[in-house]
Amino acid sequence: MSAHTSADQVLALCGGIGGAKLALGLYRVLGPGRLTVLVNTGDDFEHLGLAISPDLDTVLYTLGGLADPERGWGRAQETWQCMEALRQLGGETWFQLGDRDLAMHVERSGWLRRGQTLSAFAARAARQFGIDAHILPMTDAPVRTIVETDEGALPFQHYFVRRRCEPVVRAIRFARAAEAAAPQSFIDLVAGDSLRAIVICPSNPYLSVDPILAVPGIAAALATARAPVVAVSPIIGGQAVKGPTAKIMVELGLAVTNESIAGHYRSLIDGLVVDEADGADAARLDVPTLAVPTLMRDLADRERLAGDILAFAATLVQSSAPMRAGGRRR
Ligand code: FO1
User: Fold this and answer.
1) Containing structural domain, residue 216
2) Are residues 165 and 298 in the same domain?
3) Same domain, yes or no, for 167 and 268?
4) 89-141: per-residue pLDDT in tens?
5) Does residue 4 have a pLDDT over 80?
6) Residues 155, 196: one domain?
7) In this structure, are 218 and 244 located in the same domain?
8) Cα-to-centroid distance, 54 and ligand 1 (Å)
9) Distances in Å between the alpha carbon of 171 and those of 8, 13, 174, 234, 248?
10) Among 78, 95, 99, 158, which residue has the most ligand 1 atoms within 8 Å of its CB, making it the best to mutate?
11) Which helix (H) or strand (E) holds 111?
């Protein structure tokens, strides 16, 4: 592979808030036209008659410079008049849709109703926001994450927002994944020689990355990719940076460690990035490991982490293709 000459593209797999932060760091470090983001759509649902794609929108708003910096989801300078009016009418307000954000859902819903695809909508929204990166939904098919809990099966947003991740998770499944197809542009990108790295962002492996890997063809394409595949652990010091990752790991009977994360991605990755606080883990892990600051408080953190990941991936280029050619690396 002519890694240092023509391979200038990077593919990132991500869910919502945490993943989008790193995607922005990669976008800024790489510059225009060099990043493809394959985004989880298992969280999508129909709500108030509208097609909602939370992670896709989080990535679009984040890369477009429109995201609310505190919440991480939705738009900055948001107002909530519609939700207030809905509350007055006795409508459903457990899932907060801001006035500006509503425009996205209204426009997407009309687009899908007219028979256009989610990926075409995402590409158009990215263009409209001035984003020079490919933002790809993991599939155009309606794959839906279902969380099996002690309260029964809950659609993702009902578990995550309505029930605030309180029910105990027994299993997670991805309804209709078997019928879904991976984007052809993703397959072509991974099979070609323009990729310098594939990055699995520090999104929740079970809720946000697994739905992407459940789409037929995606995991297989990653496992045979020539470009090095690097995952960033969402665990720091035995805790999740944000969200329910650690709680879910405990409920699924997993130790909240980088070993569990490395084990989860074992057949796919050539390297794991852990936080500097977990540097001692490197010796125990059976995958090349880089320990650097992974907490992304500001833009400088995101860019620094992106640069560290790309430099690490470059060190893995020599070994990745031949070692994974036999199937498993380890
Ligand atoms: N998260 C919440 O915790 N509460 C909400 O009311 C909420 C609304 C919402 C609206 C649009 C959107 O794009 C995202 C929204 N999110 C909300 C975030 C979302 O539920 C999750 O962050 C992701 O699905 C998990 O990645």
Assistant:
1) 9-42+54-69+117-143+176-324
2) no
3) no
4) 999 999 999 999 999 999 999 999 999 999 999 999 999 999 999 999 999 99
5) no
6) no
7) yes
8) 6
9) 38, 22, 10, 20, 9
10) 95
11) helix 99-113
Instruction: Judge whether 214 lies within some domain.
Output: yes
- Looking at residue 167, its amino acid is P
Tokens 């969380």 label which residue? 147
Same domain for 274 and 129: yes
- Kindly state whether residue 47 falls inside one of the protein's structural domains: no
Distance 169 CA to ligand 1 centre (A): 19
Give the span between the Cα atoms of 53 and 141, in whole angstroms: 12
Residue 91's identity, in one-letter code, is G
The conformation of residue 67, written as its DSSP 8-state character, comes to: B
In 3D, which of 42, 289, 254, 1 has the Cα closest to residue 147? 42
Ligand 1 pocket test target in 73, 80, 92 with most atoms within 8 Å of CB: 73
Residues 190-230: pLDDT tens digits?
999 999 999 999 999 999 999 999 999 999 999 999 999 99
**Angstrom distance (rounded) from CA 65 to CA 24:** 9
The minimum-distance atom of ligand 1 relative to the CA of 157 is 20
CA nearest neighbour of 165 among 150, 185, 183, 178: 150
The token duo for 56 is 């896709």
Task: Answer yes or no: is 318 within a domain.
Answer: yes
* Whether the CB of 161 sits within 6 Å of ligand 1: yes
The residue whose C-alpha atom lies closest to atom 14 belonging to ligand 1 is: 54
For residue 94, the ligand 1 atom closest to its alpha carbon is 6
Mean pLDDT of the chain: 94
CB neighbours of residue 79 within 10 Å: 11
